[in-house]
Amino acid sequence: MDALTLLTTTRSVRRKLDLERPVPRAVLEDCLRIAQQAPAAGTMLTAQRWIVVLDPLLRKEIAAIVRESAHAVWQRYAPQTDNRIFASGRYLVDHLDRVPALLIPCLPGRPPTRLVEQTSYFGSIYPSIWSFQLALRTHGLASSLCSYHLADREEDVARLLGIPADVTQIGLLAVGYSTQQEFSPAARPPVPEILSYDAWGWIR
Ligand SMILES: Cc1cc2nc3c(=O)[nH]c(=O)nc-3n(C[C@H](O)[C@H](O)[C@H](O)COP(=O)(O)O)c2cc1C
């Protein structure tokens, strides 16, 4: 697959994850190797830690925690969320215990409060997360972020997996083989709507 197709058609996959087919560790490790090539702030280049959860019992326990948090999150954000995304998010949460691999990218420390530090902090892992998602696709896998437990249950997942209190979970990725290989570009704002040259170009 050429790079432009990969970049424009890699979607958050929730309903089309193969819940029966195990994900080999070697594939995940290869994708993580690629993800480590992503840019990060100089001080954070070696800071990432990724926990891969394959154990069925742990996945079940994590899924139960995520499910509880998701209901509270949906009550708050559902009115602002596209119905299709909401329904597909619900499907994923309902089936999360059966998703073959759950990945939790982590960073040391707690999220900073100053903007300049926040941007370095989260910005030092999201490029890797996205590279990881792109790399999965090249192996026929797909993924979606499903981070609801960060609303109020991060500590419960931390306890379950032995994650120290001074380590931050950045999200939770649901990963599996994709039952569909062809995806289309999503509807997004056209460039002229989001672009302005030389000055802020929108009326607020
Ligand atoms: C920071 C971040 C957090 C996200 N969290 C969730 C989530 O908790 N649950 C979920 O279903 N999707 C989550 N997503 C995926 C978005 O919902 C998804 O990108 C959006 O629906 C657009 O679909 P697409 O990725 O297929 O273009 C997240 C994406 C990002 C970048």
From TrEMBL:
Record keywords: Flavoprotein, FMN, Oxidoreductase
Gene3D superfamilies per the UniProt record, alphabetical: NADH Oxidase
Domain of life: Bacteria
Pfam families per record: Nitroreductase
UniProt keyword Flavoprotein, yes or no: yes
Domain Nitroreductase: 9-177
Entries under InterPro entries matching the protein: Nitroreductase, Nitroreductase-like, Nitroreductase/BluB
Stored CDD domains: Nitro_FMN_reductase
Stated name of the protein: Nitroreductase family protein
